[in-house]
Design brief:
By secondary structure, the chain is an all-beta fold. The longest helix is centred in the first third of the chain and has 4 residues. The chain has 1 helix and 11 strands. The radius of gyration is 17 Å and the shape is globular. It binds 2-acetamido-2-deoxy-beta-D-glucopyranose (3 copies) and copper (II) ion. One 2-acetamido-2-deoxy-beta-D-glucopyranose binds next to strand 3. Copper (II) ion binds next to loops.
Amino acid sequence: MRVRSVIPAGLLCATGVEAHYYWPWVIVNGTESPQWKYVRKVKGGSDNSLYALAEPHYDIFSTNFTCGRDAFDAAWATETADVVAGSEIGFRLNQGYEESVPSTNYGLNHQGPAFAYLARAPDDDLSTFSGGDGDWVKIQAILAESSNQWILHRFDQRILNITIPANIPPGKYLLRIEHIFLLPNFRQSQFFLNCAHVNIINNGKYGSFEGYQFAKFPGTYDYMDPNIWIGANMDLEKYVGPGPMVWEG
Ligand SMILES: *[C@@H]1O[C@H](CO)[C@@H](O)[C@H](O)[C@H]1NC(C)=O
Ligand SMILES: *[C@@H]1O[C@H](CO)[C@@H](O)[C@H](O)[C@H]1NC(C)=O
Ligand SMILES: *[C@@H]1O[C@H](CO)[C@@H](O)[C@H](O)[C@H]1NC(C)=O
Ligand SMILES: [Cu+2]
């Protein structure tokens, strides 16, 4: 998709679908699992080619905004990764390539912030939990490193590393990863999101959600929110992102 030429060069959405991506691999305990093993498999926006899987989300009010296009259809087929609270889980992107294409050939084409959320499945049953009615806790925000540079701005940043909070109560959760390519026009910003099934192991102390403002997907994000856009000469260090604050426990 082409964007208006008034956008600064650094923000340009490269022409061609290869600019886009999804997050089908997870890395737990330093080991990468096959695509879609722990991530809910999604459908394409226009067809079911691999490239179409990478099409961005623009509609923040769609049920597809929860975990990706028709992601709930894959709930039964998705396995659940045991992850220890306090440890790191990585998500690696794919731009619509076969598994055999070396990962160094593709990467994060768009600069922008990223967020991670957790929602616990009722009765710890992920197979019946779409996440649409879930209470989502923001656990990480990857923002700017300076007033004009995002932390995520390089092609080789193709793995997002998320730390599971040390004080999160144990249980089965959807872990939603979201990378946003912010653009200046209405419904133009591009969201790249997927959800993994995780079983969080925690034998330590748990924090409290009392008073915490959970997010809903869809529901919480709003096009009127300046965090959904990028303005000209915006000071990126002032950007906090849409949705609630990161939970501190
Ligand atoms: C969700 O995505 C699927 C696959 O692209 C599409 O068929 C469906 O219409 C979308 N649902 C909504 C509510 O947009
Ligand atoms: C990661 O390590 C923990 C602790 O050793 C283990 O319980 C868990 O099963 C491992 N997870 C995976 C997906 O290998
Ligand atoms: C995530 O961790 C991996 C492994 O340590 C590293 O190669 C990668 O650069 C990290 N990703 C980012 C975005 O920093
Ligand atoms: Cu794009």
